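Following up on my earlier thread - several people asked me to post the actual chain instead of describing it. Fair enough. Here it is, all 365 residues.
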Amino acid sequence: MDFKDSIKTIADRIDDIKDNLPTEEATKTALILPFIQALGYDIFNPNEVLPEMTCDIGTRRGERIDYAIFQDGEPIILMECKHWEQNLDLHETQLLRYFTVSTARFAILTNGIEYRFYTDTERPNIMDETPFLEIDLLNLKDDKLESLRKFHKSYFNVSEILSSACELKYLNSLQDILEREFNNPSPDFVRVLCRQVEKTASFPQRVVERFTPIVKKSIQLYIRDLIFDRLTTLTTENQTITPTPYNLRSDVSDEGCIEEEEELQVTDEELRSFEIIKNILKDVVDTEKITYRKHAAYCLIVLFDSRFDWIIRLRYNNSENKKIQLMKDWITGPRTYIENPEDIYKYKDDIIYRANEIIESRKKC
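Reply from S.P.:
Thanks for posting it. Predicted structure:
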């Protein structure tokens, strides 16, 4: 059985058996030993997997680690195991002590469901407080499984894992920070974004407080659009995209990294709509500030060349089913059917309202 399939098989049976595991030993037998076996190690060979390895600490004798995995006669991984209901946050100190007196470079703290992987990236032979890899068998992700694969007996290489451990550690920390900031933007984060919009050093607290909900909505819109673009790409991946001479800005790839955006063809109807928007707003804003952003699923008409400051979203991929979307009070409206670009004039007041909303928000920053 493939490595990933083996791990997923263990994960799939957790809910069915965990309530019948009353002790730590039962957790080891039913959940943790199969996990070690899935990593390619012979759980019945003490030269590979040694239970209860002695880890004497100073004058304290008889200290034992639950499992030690060996390679070439030397311990390479220590495993401290707890009952599946235990909170692992309460047991990190114990594993740290064992790590200090061992030559192993990696340590795992687990309750059979969650696995935390540690090493010593900060100080030699002193286990880091923060794990560089966390695996939750009830919430498996492919990128985590690929990192876990490096611990398989067939691929295990100390140098390679250590070289990626530091990156993984900071990657996880940054993801946590981004999650917090996206859900509840901090004043400092809001100021950073404000400075990208308006080149000024002064952002008093009242301005930050006013801009915070706008930042949060912008993040939510961006993530939603990113997901929609990805889903659209998956459903239209065989569609041929013709290059266009228009030089469009970079965008975000599926992995979230900045990369050069493919130049997509802007249709005649989209260009006509663009001219209509400029005509509607000619007395509201300098029309040179109105631009467009072409995406695989839609075309955005924006102000100040910012995808967050969009006025209207054109969904013309289906010539028989054209739709537009407007935003008001920083909330995206429903998709509305139109027959031709000239129908946009029906929404003149909404478009002017939206443009003024964007302009006012920039003044407040």
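The chain has two domains: 3-178, 187-364. That should answer part of your original question.
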